[in-house]
Batch of 2 targets.
Target 1
Amino acid sequence: MTEEIIIAGFGGQGVLSMGKILAYSGIMQDQEVSWMPSYGPEMRGGTANVTVILSDERISSPIINKFDTAIILNQQSMDKFEDSVKPGGIMVYDGNGITRHPERKDISIYRVDAAEEAVNMESARIFNMIVLGGYLKVKPVVKLENIIKGLKESLPERHHALIPLNEKAVKRGMEIVRMVQEV
């Protein structure tokens, strides 16, 4: 199994940390992992994306331009990466701020309204974990217990008290993700 993922959105949405948590979770499952971030100099508010590859075999190159899955968190990323999903692949997106919804007919599309749910859960900081939960419901490439281990590895120890809230957010994302289109 090899899963090639692009996660893209604005800096400050937890794009890079979502990728890092996925990567650590893959390591916890004895998978080969690649994590390659990309962000503009403006960081917070600018665009950011990360490529994550999880594989049972050796990864030959971290540089790819077609993905099995795209996790999209803003309109700019939708415009840039919609065509980068392989036919038969998956797109998971947060509908907040999206003005042009995905138009491809050869991919499965799922929507998780994570921004709205983060407000309902009274913590904007868990937005990315809600999105991650939605993705893992659709494509369970890593186990939930390994996500928790990944959180412990990627979060500074001073933030470990937030792990239960993050776990709750992942589970909530699994509950609220909905299919828009399946191929």
Target 2
Amino acid sequence: MEQDVFRGKHVRLTILRKDDAATVARWTEDGGYLRLQDTGVARPESEESIAADIERDNESTTTFAFAIRRIADDALLGTVGLFDVEWANRTAWVGIGLGDRADWNQGYGSEAMELAARYAFDELNLHRLQLTVIDYNPRAIAMYERLGFVREGNYREFGERDGARYDLFLYGLLRPEWRERTRGASS
């Protein structure tokens, strides 16, 4: 039982620190990054606003936001978090973002999501994780499906970007499904 719930092979999860706000603010200057995060209006955020969000999230009992740091050099790669935890139902929303495009397609996101799921199911004793993803983000969709998330629904023509309409997919992962997948991966 010596497993570190915050450490993988290449990344580790830490608390977000106030001094991380400058890096996260820089990421919000990339409209392409923001348009992959959610369907809201892409808008840069100030370092002060992000620092306030970090402070609020670190105090919350229904949000567990983590920094994704590369083990080799402790570089801040992105964020992953469990949001709107419903303790009575043992459910939470999960979200992830890697800020610098140079860090995309390196496996960091998959490993961080694995750690977040392990934390959700083994540490917080949750039963269900859920997320939404816009249909023009095939890399994220492939990652979620590879990690065992199941497409449960489709919000038709939910988002609009550059004059085109896009569906928003709802994905869920149940604790027994995750356990079965991770048991098979370790044998």
